[in-house]
Specification:
CATH architecture: 3-Layer(aba) Sandwich
Strand content: 35-45%
Shape: globular
Number of domains: 1
Largest sheet: 7 strands, mixed
CATH topology: Aminopeptidase
Helix content: 10-25%
Order of helices and strands: EHEEEHEHEE
């Protein structure tokens, strides 16, 4: 089996975002502000040329915390049948490495409740800030220093 994580275009991630994050919503609802910025990074985990996991990294300053020189994790997902196999961990580790190479100081995200323990095990800090995102659910604001 051929496993590889590589950069891709945001458009290639729309199908997995739709399936895993938006209840099979139209692709237009799966695009993120900043997807097409030149400094955005989109990573896909390929298994035999099939995308089974994805993450996008978009330069963005959070409104919840005073973090400078940071990048936001968006659209992090792994197909159900591949969860629990280390795919998500490898994606996040690869994303953090890319962010360090670029020179970011912090990485942050709005994490769904179901993913909270996953990120805490990877040493993300739970700020204690929680909020509801319409039509998606309760999220926690998490961050991690890359220094």
């Amino acid at each position: 089996m051929d496993h590889v994580i590589r950069k891709t275009d945001a458009e290639n991630l729309l199908p997995i975002r739709s399936i895993m994050l938006r209840k099979n919503a139209d692709f237009d609802l799966c695009r993120y502000k900043g997807d097409n910025k030149k400094d955005s990074i989109h990573l896909a985990y390929f298994l035999n040329k099939k995308i089974i996991g994805a993450v996008s990294l978009i330069k963005n300053i959070p409104t919840h915390k005073n973090l400078k020189n940071c990048v936001q994790v968006r659209g992090m997902c792994v197909l159900n049948e591949y969860q629990g196999m280390g795919v998500g961990k490898k994606l996040i580790e690869n994303a953090e490495k890319k962010c360090k190479e670029v020179g970011f100081d912090f990485i942050w995200m709005n994490a769904r409740i179901i993913a909270l323990n996953f990120y805490l095990k990877l040493n993300y800090h739970d700020s204690g800030i929680k909020y509801e995102i319409s039509n998606i659910g309760l999220h926690h604001f998490l961050f991690k220093s890359l220094k």
